[in-house]
Structures are given as structure tokens and as C-alpha cells.
Amino acid sequence: MVAIVIAILMIVFIMVFLFSSLLGSQAGQTLKSEYRNLYAHNMLLSLLRTDTQCGVMSDVLKGAYFGGGKCDSTQFMADRLPSYISSILNATGHTDYDWFMEASPKNFQGTVLAFGNPVVKESLDSWDARTMITWEGYQLEVKIYVRTK
Amino acid sequence: MISVFQIFRALMGVIVFIFVITFFLRISDMYTATQIKGSKMEMVNAFDYVAMQTYTSGNPATFPGFGDFETLVYEPPKIKSDAGQHTLSVPVFFVPGRGEISMERRCLDFGWFKWCMVFAFPAKSKILFTPIENTNATRDLILEIVENLPGSLEYGFCNGADARTANKGEFLSYLASGAGVTYQPCETQLPEYCRLVTITASTDSSSNLTENHIIINPSTRLVSEENSSGGLESRPYHDWMDIAVFITGGVKALDYKKAVFSRELAASAGIMHERSVLVSQRIKECNIQPCLECSTPFPTPCGWTDYSGREHESGIYHDFISSLVSLKNAISSGNYHQLLEDTASKYNELKNQGCE
Amino acid sequence: MKSQASVTEYLVLVMMIVIIVLIAMLLIFGFQFFTVGSEQLKGRERMSLFLLESFISSTALNNLQYQKGSVFDDSKLTVASCEDLETLLGKGWFAEIMVLLDESVCYDQPAWKKNKCLRDLRKQASIVCTKQNYPFCNIWRFCEQNKGDRMIYRSIPVNVYRKMNNTLELGVITVGVQTGG
Fold first, then answer.
1. Which class for B195: exposed (0-12), middle (13-18), buried (19 or more C-beta within 10 A)?
2. Mean pLDDT, chain B, as a whole number?
3. Less Cβ around it within 10 Å: N or C end of chain C?
4. How confident is the model at residue B5 (pLDDT cuts 50, 70, 90)?
């Protein structure tokens, strides 16, 4: 009888403890997702505004999609974009992040330009940021997806 | 026959039972009190966090409310309650109250310097105006105040015993129509979360002061409220924000706003001054030695000056730097507002000339 | 003998109950301390996020041409001091802003120039800015804390506007908040 009572008491305490820990960890998730959203948003915004040898990155992306630009925009994006993102991830201590970026037409028919690991986009635990680039009335939606490897 | 061992077992059982029950009762009592206090502090922390987010993002927010606090007062920058006190992390002008609290950010923008704060009002708040001398200047003042206050409040007029409110849009439309009504001092009982603002150049109105009632005197540029000994406590105002802050929290709130504003203005002016001297010095070097890593994007009117303050070529940077020096020197005296406007216009010139 | 054994057994059982009740007491108090500790940590994490957002929107440090923020002006960063920023943003933090230099500019160079290019670039990358070496520097540090202080660090990408040649470079801001532990 005593043993049963003791066993029940211990089970109750352990359950209360675990439940409270779970509640505590839920609150932490909100802050984590705010940080991740800020990270992805700033990564996209900063990349697109950066001046490169080929011009402003958003202009290079426009050139890769619509043609034109100071140099071979498609080749530049394919070669340099991964190294820019890699240097960001290294400098921010997030070498555990994987990424995928795509530029797709918003108000017209066209192909989708994609860079990085496409699996990231389909992943349930990825987070993303998006922005719009406009050129002569055409709107290109640029999205970046990030997840932990 | 009951054995000694059975008696002993019974007694031990009772003693252990009393011990366990006493222990659990004490623990649950202590735990409940701590938890209630903890959850109240958590609410205050959550309020602080929503204020921080509103401050940095500029997006309006709603805080669900403070629930059952026995006491809750705001003495900027601290919230004092029965759960303890907490210093808010950003400048907030807060009217305590039950129910939902609306939060909106408002800023004063001088081009090179921007100062923001968060207004936090209970969602049911009202502001009533009684413009005794109903002139165009008074209506312009009311327009400026209401345009910059949150849209979640109701605004209206109080004329003697008649008090009516409307939402911000309707109120502003009515104000713009310029209806020429003569106003009597407000005599109506103010509802909860209502502030009365009497605008008059007459000093006689002070006798009508009650709680939640302030007076604006546009001719002396003073805002006043009743102090604890029944007299009048006044402060000068310089812009719509001073009046709006006074409406929320009176003398203490306005004193706090002025202290934080001038402290942050001094720090920002220091950075801007040093930076302008540095940039104008480098412009000079660019002009002399174009092989340095700068593409001389600066038009000639920008000018430059060196660290000892010697002017080598007059220009807009020099004018801007001089205005910043005058401002920095005047901040501690409190008479800097005209100089601040001056720096704003000089900075605008810098931008227009392509120097920024 | 048998009754002595029963008494002993009973006493042992009673002692076990008392010990379990004491363990329960320790568990509850321990949990309280854990809750208070985790609340404090949550507060520090909120503060680190708030500081990041304050930095990227501060008119004192950002270039005002870019309304969306996150563009630091290198001339403002060079002259700002820890005291100035503590007045604007409070105390108990550390910040570092660093420009990410593009090493790929060296890859296009001929082999004999490439290594020198990389060496010069890496040397410049580690130069902390002062008024004297401006604009040939890449790192700005504010309110460096003691190495023993426990900190929560957060980093995000930003841009740095190079005032003297009117270009926007890619950079990173790292903010550290003391945990008070």
C-alpha cells in the first residue's frame, strides 16, 4: 500500500516537472522563430543591395533573368552567389544552415531561376523571406529559404 | 488484545500523516503566492516586450491587458505594481487601465536625428477638448495634436454639460469644417479613461481643474495640471509631442520625456558632429589626392573643415557642423529647440546638394 | 525477534516516506529556481533581439538614404563611442560590425598576383576602424566586455555603406548580451 502511494506520488511529480519544462520550451520557440525570420529577411535584403564587380546584386539578378547587365550575369550569379551566402553563414556562426533561393515571375509567364539546395524549399522546418524586384513593369518575386542541416 | 507494536504503528502513522499534510499545505500556500506574483511580473515583462517590438518596428500592437492587479501605476520609466517594479526598456507613455491596451509608435524627425516613443492607452480611452477661444490657431493646434495621437482613441469636444466623441477620422473631418461654436468650460462628469484638455489664454480657468484635466495656454506656450496641494503645476511645451505626453502622464511624464530626449539628442549630435568633421576632412584629402580609395562623389559646395575647427573652404558641411556645435552647447541649458530646427534645415541642404 | 523485525521494517518504511517527501520539497524549490533562471534567460534573449533591431534601425548609425534600415554608415560607425551608444541603447552588451570582403576579386587575378591579393585582403579584413585609418578598415567594435562574462550572441547580415566611395558592401553585425551568470 505504502509502496503504491509512493510510486503514484513520484509519477505525479515527474509529470508536473516535465509538463512545466515543455511549457518553458514553447515560449523559447517564439523568440527563436523571430530571430530566424529576421535573419532570413536581412540576408535577402542585404544580398540584393550589395555592390559587386558586376553591379548591384539585384541588377545582376535582373540581368540573369531578363538579359543584359555589365557582365555575364547568369554565370556571375551561379559562381558568386553561393560564395556570398557561404561567407555570411560562416561569419554569423551558422555553418549548420542550408539555403535555397529562387526568382520567379509574379505578374507574367516565365521560368524560375533557382540557386542552392532545392530540398530546403520542400522541407517542413524551413523558414523564408521574400521581396519583389520590378523592371519595366515586370515583377520578379525573389524568395530565400533557410533550414538547419 | 492490541499489541504495543500496533499502538506504536498507529501513533507513527498519525505523526507522519500530520507532518506530510502540514508540509503540503505550507508549500502550496507559498507556491501559490509566488506563482501569482511571478505571473504578474510575467505580464509586465510581456508588456515591456510588446512595447519594444512596437518601438523598433513601428507597427501598432495590442496588449491584452493587465488582469487583476491590485495596484498599477506608471511613474516613467517604471511600472509599479503589487508584484514589484519594472523599468521599461524603451520610452513609453502609458495610461494604466483595465482591458486591452493599444500601442502605437510616434516619432519626431529632424532628418539627421529621429526620436521615437510608444503611446500606450486603454482601448476605450477618450480625449475631450474645450477650446475656450475657438480661433483658427486653436483649431490648428488641436488638429496637430490629434493627427499625431493614436487612431484607436476617441476624440471629441466638451461644451459645458455637453460632451460628445467620435473616432479620429470623423473628429478630424469635423475639425476641418471649421464650425464656429463658442465653448464654455466643461462641467460634465468625465467617464473612465477620459482626459479633458482645455485650451485657453485666460489664467482664470485654473479654478476648474480636476483630475485628468489639463490646460494648454497657447499664448504663453504652457501646459498645466493640478498638483497635489491644489495649485497649478506648469511646463513649457515646444511641439505636439510635449502636449501629447502631458496628456498621458502630466508633469512627471513630460519631465521624463525631456530628460530622455535631450540625453539622446546630445549623444546623437556628438556622433553626427564628429562624423561630419571626419567626412569633410576626407573630402579635402580626396580633392587633393584622388589616388586615395574614394571616387570623389562629393560636389564642391560640400566643403571641408579640419579637426581643430579651422575652416579651409566654406561649404555646406561647415555650416552644418557649426549648427551642430551651437546645438551641443545649448542642450544642457534646455533652450535648444530653435537650434535643433536650424540643424534640420542645414542637413536638408546637405542632402539637396548631394553631399549625403 | 519477529516483532523486532516488524518494528524495524516499519521504521524503515516511515523513514523512506519522509525522505521522499523531502526530495519532493527539493524538487519543487529546485523547479522554482529553474523557472526564475529560465525567465531571466528568456529576458536576455529578448534583449539580444531587441538590440539587433535597435542597431539596424538607429538613425545615429545608419545611412539615412535607405529607409528599410540595416545599412550602417561607415563614417558614423567610426566616430561612435561605447558611451554614446550606451546612452541610446542601454548597457550590458557588446557589438561588432564587420564587412565581408569578397575574396573572389582575387580569383580572377593571374596566379602570381592571386596570393598577394588574398593576403592583402585578409590583412585589411582584420583592421579595426579608428578615425586615423578610416576608410581603410573593416571592423567596428563597441563596448567590449571582459572575457569572463557569459554572453548570448546573435548575428545577422547587414550592409555597410562606404561613404567615401559611395558603395554598399555586405557585412554582419554580432550583438552579445550579458546573461548575468
1. buried
2. 86
3. N
4. confident
Contact assignment for B268 to C54 by CB distance below 8 Å = no
Give the H or E element holding residue B203: none
Cell numbers given for A124:
517542413
Name the residue ranges covered by the structural domains of chain C.
47-178
For testing contact with chain A, the best of C15, C49, C102, C164 (most A CBs within 10 A) = C102
**ipTM, 2 decimals?**
0.83
Q: What is the rounded distance in angstroms from the CA atom of residue B21 to the CA atom of residue B17?
A: 6
Reported as a single tens digit per residue, the pLDDT across C8-41 is: 777 777 777 777 777 777 777 777 677 667 777 7
Report the C-alpha gap between C27 and B92 in whole angstroms. 40
Q: Omega of the bond prior to B299 within 30 degrees of 0, cis?
A: no
Contact, B159 vs B130, CB < 8 A?
yes
Residue B292: its pLDDT value, please? 46
Provide the pLDDT confidence category of residue A22 given band limits of 50, 70 and 90.
low
**What pLDDT is stored for residue B311 in this prediction?**
55
Q: Which residues contact B1 (CB under 8 A, 6 or more apart)?
A: none
Please name the residues in contact with C71: beta carbons below 8 A apart, sequence gap of 6 or more: A49, C62, C63, C65, C158, C159, C160, C161, C168
Distance CA A62, CA A42 (A): 20
Q: How far apart are CA C156 and CA B36, in angstroms?
A: 37
d(CA A97, CA B156): 55
C177–A contact, CB cutoff 8 A: no
Grid cell for residue A140: 520578379
**Distance of residue B238 Cα from the nearest chain C Cα, in angstroms:** 22
Query: How confident is the model over A54-92, as pLDDT tens digits?
Result: 899 999 999 999 888 888 999 999 989 999 999 999 999
Q: How far is A28 from chain C (nearest CA, A)?
A: 7
Which among B326, A52, B290, B273 has a CA at the least distance from the CA of C75?
B273
Instruction: Chain C: give the shortest CA distance to residue A8, in Å.
Output: 12
What pLDDT is attached to residue C51?
Answer: 94
C169 in Cβ contact with C100 (< 8 Å)? yes
CB–CB of B132/B157 below 8 Å?
A: no
- Residues from chain A contacting residue C172 (CB–CB below 8 Å): 88, 91-92
B117-143 b/e (C-beta count within 10 Å ≥ 16 → b): bbbbbbbbbbbbbbbbebeeebbebbe
